[in-house]
Amino acid sequence: MSDSDHSRRGGVALEKTYQFLLWLVPTVEKFPRSQKFLLGDRLQNLAVDLLESLIEATYARHPAPALTAANLRLEKLRYGFRLARDLHHIDPRRHEFAARAIDEIGRLVGGWLKATRAAQ
Questions:
Q1: Are 119 and 1 in contact (CB under 8 A)?
Q2: Is 49 helix (H, G, I), strand (E, B) or coil?
Q3: I want to staple 113 with a disulfide (CB 3.0 to 4.6 A). Which of 1, 15, 67, 89 is the partner?
């Protein structure tokens, strides 16, 4: 994969993740006080860690480990949002938005990881 392909893939995934964080922060503020600082903080931390993993992958000579970590964080986010929905901390509409965003980022990261492995 050329450096420009690497940057483009990283740029799209990074931007989608950044936009997801812009949505997530005010969404967590609506959680019940008792969960805002437990589940809400955990979701926010996972999303920030995801963004950091993608930044690392963008600049890494060998991005596969950072992309693998990003995939794991995406899976944790999926379960965290499912839990938030089942506990009625977010409504089904917000859960659907989160699930779609996470799936889209996951497809981008998966494609990036596949291309990275094929290039090696």
A1: yes
A2: helix
A3: 67
- Tokens 């989160």 belong to 98
For residues 73 and 53, the answer to whether their CB atoms sit within 8 Å is: yes
Per-residue tens of pLDDT for the chain, all 120 residues: 454 455 566 789 999 999 999 999 999 999 998 888 899 999 999 999 999 999 999 999 999 999 999 999 999 999 999 999 999 999 999 999 999 999 999 999 999 999 998 987
Question: Rounded distance, CA 67 to CA 56, Å?
Answer: 9
Q: Give CA–CA dist 61/38, Å, rounded.
A: 36
Burial class (CB in 10 A: 0-12, 13-18, 19+), 83: middle
pTM here is 0.90
Nearest to 97 by CA among 22, 45, 12, 5: 22
Residue 114 to residues 3, 9, 13, 99, Cα–Cα distance (Å):
16, 12, 14, 22
Q: What dihedral angle (degrees, nearest 10) is formed by the CA atoms of 73, 76, 81, 84? A: -130
**Six-digit token string for 21:** 């964080």
